[in-house]
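Lab notes, practical 5.
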Amino acid sequence: MLRHLRTLLVTPLRAHRGRPAALLALLAACTALALIEYTPLTLLQNALFDRMQRLSPRDRSEMPALIVAIDEKSLAALGQWPWPRQTLARLVETIGTGDPLAIGLDMIFPEPDRLGSASLKRLYPQLGRIPLADPDARLAAALAATPSVLGISANKTLLHGNRSALKVTPVISRGGDAGAIANPFAGALASLPALEAAARGQALLNAQEDPALQDPERGVLRRVPLMASVAGLPVAALGPEMLRVALDAPAVEADIRNGRITRVGVDAYRLPTQADGKLILHFGPLRADRIFSAV
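Output from the prediction step:
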């Protein structure tokens, strides 16, 4: 029986001679391409990608988004970070006077303000029953009065302070279940419930570094998730969620084909993605005229 089986296996190989070697080489090449991000070949891929970005940068002549930066000038004028919530509330209120379509805060407020009334009275019991303003309530009021979007930070494991139940606008999946395809997370660190309730939305802030082996430029971001799966629920990233708020749309949508996410966006504004919902970034020159100091 063993001799007969050996004959069945070896005879076709001898008949085609070089074909098995070619098939093995093809299989090895396909495996290398499929796992390129986890091999030194990714260095070559990144170098080519960066070269193409320099040769053909993104046209940023039309850039509707403005950036309000917490820069060195602002820190020198207003003090070290984190600022009191009253200061952030004033900042949101001031931006709101310009009637923006959406305000995205790429920050999280998981704990009460350290300068809030409860914290101060614990530190200074002599304050007794003296009424003190609640800075978190002030920030909540500013968020409620503006089209604001807060951030969340998703984690692979449920760390201290993380939650699996979040106040987010779920992503609508078309053609499949985006929650089962996108990069999965167990839970997320989010803002205080009062701030969650006041904001128009909450969105993912996570970014993923290139997992290149022996990469001298570790930490370079060449792609970002437009959505992810948090405790099985598809959650949009800050950009798409701000677009949803700006267009007053009911949800961000994910198009799925053959078990792969192909596009993520709102209405006619959709961006092509990788299979798990990540967007490959197309960089362009810095527009200094679109960046304003918070102070």
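Observations recorded by the TA: Confidence is low (pLDDT under 50) at residues 5-10. The first strand starts at residue 67 and ends at 69.
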